[in-house]
From TrEMBL:
It comes from the Eukaryota. It comes from Chloropicon primus. InterPro entries: DUF6816 (IPR049213). Pfam families: DUF6816. This is DUF6816 domain-containing protein. Residues 15-225 form the DUF6816 domain.
Length: 227
């Protein structure tokens, strides 16, 4: 069985980009999010069951959950990936006390999730932000971000399952004075592309090269409301 770290050593050959995605100061704090899956596309048989389940149970339905942004050790605003993953999971599965989330705001690329019978290892390997770390400008009202990440799902039985994904998000926001009461202050369009990643776990030189054509695509519209 290939350990997540072994898989990641090979994966990181594709790596690059800044240390994290940085956001304007107004993002800091927690937000009530309304996220709607507006489109699902499947290309080939990869993830066919999950795609069909999303079409039947999630398409054109709104999921509500909390998302938070915090300051890292450099004083820059970043997404609280550990807490945010927990909030989304609870919105889908309900409150759980048997799931452990391990994430460090100053070492943000790795997130580990432990639950009964399954370990999930997530690592961001490449990212891009249209603003870089220059997000303090008052005139900045839009932002485009992109992250490539791997996920390793290990149930302890046989080879782990490996997924490669790219998340592209287009953000726009307005000042508090410009936001009508009861309306979202931040809007986002998000595209999640999943790629087939054949894995020979008996080979040390793991290869993740089939990233040109996504096997499935999920498109979301998101609205962030002040809590």
């Amino acid at each position: 069985m290939a350990a997540p770290e072994l898989i990641s050593d090979a994966w990181e050959k594709l790596g690059g980009g800044q240390a994290d995605i940085f956001y304007p100061d107004l993002f800091e704090g927690c937000w009530q999010v309304a996220s709607t899956l507006v489109d699902v596309q499947q290309k080939g048989e990869y993830d066919a069951d999950q795609v069909q389940q999303a079409i039947e149970n999630e398409l054109n339905k709104t999921l509500r959950y909390e998302q938070c942004f915090v300051r890292n050790g450099r004083g820059l605003v970043v997404a609280d990936r550990g807490l945010n993953t927990k909030k989304i999971t609870e919105a889908i599965l309900g409150a759980r006390d048997d799931i452990r989330y391990n994430w460090n705001v100053d070492d943000p690329n790795v997130l580990r999730i432990d639950l009964k019978g399954l370990k999930i290892f997530t690592r961001v390997t490449r990212r891009f932000s249209s603003a870089g770390s220059d997000v303090a400008s008052p005139s900045l009202r839009t932002l485009e971000t992109s992250e490539l990440f791997e996920q390793v799902f290990d149930n302890g039985l046989g080879n782990p399952r490996v997924k490669a994904s790219r998340l592209i998000t287009k953000w726009k926001w307005r000042t508090l004075d410009e936001t009508p009461e009861g309306q979202p202050r931040i809007l986002a369009n998000q595209v999640l592309s999943n790629y087939a990643t054949p894995l020979d776990s008996n080979t040390a030189d793991l290869s993740f090269t089939n990233l040109s054509e996504p096997a499935s695509i999920y498109k979301y519209k998101m609205a962030f409301f002040s809590v």
